[in-house]
Amino acid sequence: MSSKLSPIWDVIIIGGGAAGFFAAIRCAELNPDLRVLILEKASQSLGKVLISGGGRCNVTHACFEPAKLISYYPRGGNELRGAFSRFQPKDTVEWFESRNVKLKTESDGRMFPVTDDSNTIANCLRDAAEQARVRVELGASVLSVEKSPQGGFKLEVMKEAQVFILQTKKLMFATGGDRKSQNLIQKLRHAIAPQVPSLFTFNIKDKRIDGLAGVAVEDAVLKMDSLSARGPLLITHWGMSGPGVLRLSAWGARILFDKKYASTLTVNWLGDYKQGTTLEVLQRNKDWHENARKKVAAHSAFSQIPIRLWKQLVYFIGDKNWADVSKAEIQKLAQELTAGEFRIRGKGQFKEEFVTCGGVSLKEVDFKTMQSRVVDNLFFAGEVLDIDGLTGGFNFQAAWTTGWLAGSALSTDRERMHG
Ligand SMILES: Cc1cc2nc3c(=O)[nH]c(=O)nc-3n(C[C@H](O)[C@H](O)[C@H](O)COP(=O)(O)OP(=O)(O)OC[C@H]3O[C@@H](n4cnc5c(N)ncnc54)[C@H](O)[C@@H]3O)c2cc1C
Question: Does the beta carbon of 31 sit less than 6 angstroms from any atom of ligand 1?
């Protein structure tokens, strides 16, 4: 730690990620008299912003109705409803635009900087923090936190193999999914919902999809236990991925963890086609005289199903012509197309985005201020909370919103906060 660093602070934020920076900037801009410090253990700040969205940073999502927005959060949606009425994606867009960073919307609603470069976002945050005179200390790892007898908190911080003691009136954890930091929070008597991964792909070894990596269907309905998700499905070298799979992985994060990522996935390759309708289409194909001498495997009966996939889904029919297919085979095919069962045997990594489900129990946090209901002057923002969203910019939006709310509350003194 630089010898010039004061041991006494008004606000210390642990974690120099999206949530930590947003809170610090908001706090320091609202109240320039406060001494605000970010402690970041890595050698650079905003590491996840830089790698996010494949290096493009999917900043937020073009969904501007809080009631709809919360439906994208498997955990935390209810708590975020009020928070989004105070700071939502529209505000995020304006926040960045007011700092000369323009965002654009892609056809699926994801919003990126027009530069398609996450450095634009990281640099904007770093510049705003510097202008607001937020102190950012890199390579500074918080080892312990305790309440001071005289109020506020005492922190033990390690930097360059030396330990420093810092004091602060207010403290915020914006430590993301860091497990050691969760232990520090537990020691302050906060409950933590167990952490498990969210947003992952499914490992599936099955001859029906073997060798089809890269083949996709636009609209599949996926079911697992009582959960279902709909969206594009992509076959990969290891199994299945795509928005539908990621959605199911997020909603089923806990169930799948408990089952050690072994479960049965039911796939309707035809979206919302019912088995009866599918049967009718197949029967028409069989009855159509021009088809009589054509191989079933030669042409997909459904334009939604690519021919390579179709060939493998009809494997049990062999090289029969339509005329020779039995009623039982037609029925089995309808079943295969609308409710094919696949064994999930493990999870894979979705490289574009990854979050943890679990974190600080939401019951113990006031979502108007992001302040702890258990410990005075303690705040939380971002992924450290038991909040996680689907892929598409929702996770950053939760970090911006909770960071902004926390920053607003951190900037006020106690009397004003309760006055
Ligand atoms: C590869 C990848 C791509 C992603 N892409 C997107 C995307 O495009 N859009 C989207 O919405 N979401 C995306 N996400 C999710 C998103 O990055 C996170 O939800 C978001 O970064 C959470 O921000 P945060 O500030 O809460 O936590 P983090 O960004 O995790 O920041 C926490 C910081 O705290 C520091 N820290 C932890 N403990 C301590 C300690 N004891 N002392 C000091 N420092 C500490 C850590 O080093 C870290 O820098 C992606 C995630 C990954 C992994």
Answer: no
